[in-house]
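Hey, quick one: can you model this chain's 3D structure?
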Amino acid sequence: MKELVEVIAKALVDEPEKVTVTETENEKSIVLELHVAQEDMGKVIGKQGRIAKAIRAVVKAAAAKNDKKVIVDIVQ
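Sure thing. Here's the predicted structure for all 76 residues.
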């Protein structure tokens, strides 16, 4: 999951070298924290959060086979 979020985010931003994803896992869920440059924050979130929702939907679909809930947080 971490790699998927990283690839999607790097394709969207102007500074792909500043994209990092940290993964925290417990029994029932996986939390992915996406860190991007401040200037690229709007590109990852999108108008009215549409890009962020799309990223979460893709990750949720990919995680369905693992029976774990995946949470994507976009962190400044």
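One thing worth noting: The chain has three helices and three strands.
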